[in-house]
Structure formats: structure tokens, C-alpha cells
Specification:
Layout (H helix, E strand, L loop, with lengths): L5 H10 L3 H35 L3 H32 L6 H12 L16 H45 L8 H20 L1
Helix pairs in contact: 2-3, 2-5, 3-4, 3-5, 4-5, 5-6
Amino acid sequence: MEIFTTAYLFELLSFFENAPAAIAGSFLALWINVYFIRQISINYEIRSRICLSRNKPHGVFFNYFISIIFLMAVQMTVIVCWGIALNALSLIPDPKQAIIFAGSSYTTLGYAVEDLPLGWKFLPSVIALSGLFAIALATACMLNMSMLFRQAWLLKHAEKIRAILERENIEMPEFMTIEETIKIKAEVKSTDNQQK
């Protein structure tokens, strides 16, 4: 067992000497994610509710997949920002390699290995942590958006599901919303007919 000597502690401290800058970069990466993920989520919520109110479930499906593409774009943007930072700090001179290294660290794949200076060896761990939390935020957003996606799917297929359940004499309490969905669909159709 190695004894902690003063020299060993100074060597260990030099490993973390640029940790504040790395943590500030991580905070910025997470802030970018939180801000844009929230914007994507709000936009999806509003547009999908409008589509549902107009009895257009396909609009909800379209909004869902477009929102997922935007969520991926946010992640790619943050990876590029990490790559630019690595290149700007002269830690990785080639911009393409810097972005590949940032992406490898951000997604925790770890296949791109660069020999960073001693004070920056902590940086890949910080990039990986920011990536883990950012991807978790995006996943949570996507799962939250899936509730309206399911509602649109039920709106589109409610009558078919009800017919199958009745034919098979199956009572499923979780599908009680189908009756409500059919009522809403009928109300929307009658409203549309009245407006025409």
C-alpha cells in the first residue's frame, strides 16, 4: 500500500489543476441541453395538443419524430462545442480528431484515445459525465413526449381496439380511455361538420 507523501499529493493535485475549467465546460454543456430540450418539449406539447384538438393524430406522430431529430441535433451540437474547446485549448491540434475525441468521451464509448497533458487528464471524465446527464435529460424528455404520442395513437385506432376487445370479451381498465377517446373523436367530427 502506497503511503500518501507530499510529493504524491502534489502529483495528484496537478492531475486536477484544470478541473474548474472542465467543470465550467460541463455546466455550459448541461445548460445548453436543458435550455434547448425544454424548448423542444414545449414546442412539441403545444403543436401536438393543437393536432389532437383538430383530430389530426398524424400531426402528433410527425411532431414526435421531428422533436427526436432536434434532440439528437442538440447532442451533436454539444459534442462539436466540446471538440472546438479541445482544439481551441490546443489539447488536440486536429479539429476533426478533437470532435471525434469529444464524441467518444461524451457518449462514453471511449474508443478515441488522446494523450492529454497531465493537468487535463481529468477532462474526458467530465465530458463523459456531462454526456451521461445530457442523454438522460433527452431520454426523459422523449419519454414524457410519448404520452401525447400514445394519446394520438389511441385516437387513431380507438374504434378498432374497442371492437377487438369486445369481440374477445376482454375488459381492460387501462383501455377505459378508449371510450373517452371515441367520445372526443365524435365531438371533434361533429364540430368540424358544424363549421363546414
